[in-house]
Amino acid sequence: MKTVINLLPLIFLSFGFFSSLVIASFSEIESVPVFESIGEHRDESSPKISYDRINEVKRKCKSVLSSASELKLEDISRAQKRKLGFKYGDWDQDSGDSPILPFDSTNTLRNSSTKPMNLVSFSVTDLDLPHRTKKYIGVNGVLLLAITMFNELPSLRSYGIREFELWPSHTQLKISFQGIYVENDDDERVLCMLGETMLPSRDESDSSNPWKWVKEHDTPPLLQDDLILLLLRYPKSFTLTKRVIQGELTSLNQKPSLKFFDKVHLFSQLGKSVRYDFVSNDLVSKACDPYPYKNDTFTSSGSGINVYKGKGFCDLLQRVTNRAPLTVVPNWKCNGTDEYCSKLGPFASDGDIKSTDGSFKDVKLYMQNVHCEETAARSQTDAVTKVSAVFRAVHPNENLYISGLRSGIDNMTVTAEGIWKPSSGQLCMIGCRRGQVDGCNARVCLYIPTTFSIRQRSILVGTFSCLNTEKNLTPSFFPLSFEKLVEPMDMQNYFQSSASHPFYSYSKLDDAGAILEKNEEFSFGTIIKKSVMHFPKLEDSDDLLSSLSLLAEDLTFHTPAFTDKQASGTNFGMDVLSLGPLFGLFWRTSNFSIAEQTTTTPYRTKAEYTEKQLLLNVSAQISLTGENFGNFSVLYLEGLYDEHVGRMYLVGCRDVRASWKILFESPDLEAGLDCLIDVVVSYPPIKSRWLADPTAKVSISSNRPEDDPLYFKTVKLKTTPIFYRRQREDILSRAGVEGILRVLTLTFSIGCITSQLFYVSSNTDSLPFVSLVMLGVQALGYSLPLITRAEALFKRKAASATTYETPSYDLQRSQWFNVIDYTVKLLVMVCFLLTLRLCQKVWKSRARLLTRTPQELHKVPSDRRVLLIALILHALGYIITLIRHPARADRLVLGSYGSAASNWWQTETEEYIGLVQDFFLLPQVIANVMWQIDSRQPLRKLYYFGITLVRLFPHAYDYTVGSVPDPYFIGEEHEFVNPNFDFFSKFGDIAIPVTAILLAVIVFVQQRWDYDKLSQALSFGRFRILPSRSVKYERVMSESEMVSGVGVNGNHSDDE
Predict the structure, then answer these.
(1) How far is CA 571 from each of CA 73, 338, 496, 581, 623, rounded to the nearest angstrom?
(2) Which DSSP string do the residues of 864-892 spell out, in sequence order?
(3) pLDDT tens-digit readout, 498-523
(4) What are the boundaries of each domain within the chain?
(5) Which GO terms describe its cellular component (predicted)?
(6) 484: buried, middle or exposed (CB in 10 Å: 19+, 13-18, 0-12)?
(7) The model's pTM
(8) 661-675, 920-934, 965-979: least confident range
(9) C-alpha–C-alpha distance, residues 120 and 266, integer Å
């Protein structure tokens, strides 16, 4: 009873700590970030608005003011600030010996072919509307000039930007301006402004190398300059041929000055904040009258390909073209001169373009600044949708992402305007190079297909064709085709209405059947495989589409893959586009035509199937990133999936990026694709994983003769282990079960320690002989998780390997797992406090013995030598573990666990600390030998056998549940054990429990037999394992004698 009373404060303390943790946990989960203020955030470092130079501006801008017309003040508002700004424009500088900006091209080896781009952004920061006049308005603004290869430009609203910044591959200069805004009779808006900044200084001693300090990485010398004139001209109307913003940046310093720089020219265009005027009907009629234009390259009628003709074309077009690069199709049909067939349509074809030899490899298109306007009509067939856009071609050596943000107009841009009608589904546009009237010699025909096949995998297709012909009636360029390839995962983002029915048309099933017959194995092993192993297949579900969708999810994977001879792998992706009647992922609006038939009919699998019924039509896509294999990075697939053996037999088509001559001389191409490819994909089984390799195997072979220029050697790939949907669900269920097991084992540990406390209260004679080192090991094991936030009893450490195929389940955010987690922490704290209480009792009992027998201190048990011997033994064991590390590191690297080897000492230390806790009885065994306990029983059997079982339970669990290394936990956290650790290997799961049980048996024997009997049993002739009896501990006053008040000398003891 006294012990229970002593434990009550500890229990209340534990529950108080646990409550605070739970409250903190839930508040952390459900809390919402609180902002300091609501509304517009004003930075203290906002730019200074000033008009103190307005008189100087009027002098420098005299010519602009002289041509200014009277402003219509009702049309001027603060919204004009946004219309006058632009981002990612282009700039160039007149040739001379006074450049304005340096550039550091060092440390750019990661992509040495990428060329730097000159970009400019401008923002109006203030309009002085209260002091406006009839002809001008005061303006403040900021301009940012930059030379960059990979970096985005900072927002001009970020007022912390320094005036000049330079680092490898990026330079930028910020200039603050104040000036005037005027309008003239030439249908222009004009900004004339004076600016100031800190210009980088050139080296005047060497005109050929003015930026010598850049290469030497010195501190940039800066010069204050306030004589910079900016002149920007904007068109008042926004049309097909009136959209270009032009500007000049001029130095007002004289040339001998280091502040002087050659004139800078700026180019951009009006953006989406400005209303577009569809007034170019005459030019549109030139290209599209009569409508629709009969496009030989892609015709919606007679080709078997349906195109989108429904409502909401503008919304769909915006989703399809939003910041997405378009792929340029090679001129595989061209038959002409090399110069003619190598042209990039209406775009400028410089050396970088011609070097592709008509294959246009890595050349991309962007469809930018799309304006779409749907006009009202009495019927859907009479509706006309007007569209305007800018097509930008991107060089192979330009940064693709940054190029997609550019707004400058140059020879690589074509402005376009046209019409779309639902009657034909064709968007016909007139194209003007550089947005100039004399450059309007191109026709653009664009479609959004709703029919897909192995040869048609594009969500958008289009062509540029020539309007003007030369005297010999030969077009100036061959029709240029482009497309946007569809990603299977993005399909549902495009067709969100049941009005459109995208579907897949199978055309290679006969060829896939021939591949199946050629690769089908018939052997005794195959029969066993079919009867024992289970592969991904259709399951019982609410309807057929749901079952197909779940199967498609299992058949889709992304993971590293390796060849037999390749040390480094490539990222391999397998995406299922359609499976049977299912197209894309399962969403009812897009699969509406078959969803109606399956809505009320639950799908149930049959017990037996014929071979034909087990074959499912499938289309997919393989993507390889990293090292190219056989000159392809994407394969379009179509064929059959055999559920019985888990294999796909597929015909593959690849986009051939060869010269136009090779393509023209290859008559067996299908729509420019090489489809003479066999692909076999073998999936691992879902169950019976110990009978098969849990990796997917892929074979890609060409059916062309070896002397064919399009032939490639057979590629055989083997992925890292993959897992299926059911196994991902098992991760969650296993984590929950393991959490509950941890709670139960910790609760059992509390019972064992509590029973020991009650035991020593009634058996005080043997209490001093409990080893404090043993209790210290247990207390250390319980305290470390509370300090380091690691898990108790069971090692939870994220596996060091990282793969693409990592589940996205975040267990830590689940409230259920949080409850289990904090319950475990509470139980660990209770175990720790109970162990400390046990240590306190042992310490006090020894202190009383020292008080009662001050002349016989050597007869009181001491743990000094026990601690020393235990430290020596564990130090030797730790050294042996470190010596064994090199062989283990090799295994880690080969097994893709290289990062664990880099922190090997930390890993080994954590492992060995766990081993010390498993062998917690070792100090007690040593102490029993040294103290010659003579049948004393300091430990209760329930205590040391119970704690031993708790420590060994993770090994038993690992051996039974994870007897086969589970590849599906790569990258996951293990609740109980980490199989990558040596001590949790198969051998460790046997050796450690055997050793721990042996220590428990030794303690049992030591407590049952006296020292003489035990020494005699362990004597072999003259050889004695145990030393002779010592008189050191023969007579030690028992606690019962002290409690009863009778000592050795007859004196009464004090009350406890």
Answers:
(1) 60, 36, 31, 29, 8
(2) HHHHHHHHHHHHHHHHHHHHTHHHHHHHH
(3) 556 788 899 999 999 999 998 876 66
(4) 53-269, 280-504, 509-587+612-725, 728-796+819-852+859-884+906-965+981-1024
(5) endomembrane system
(6) buried
(7) 0.70
(8) 965-979
(9) 7
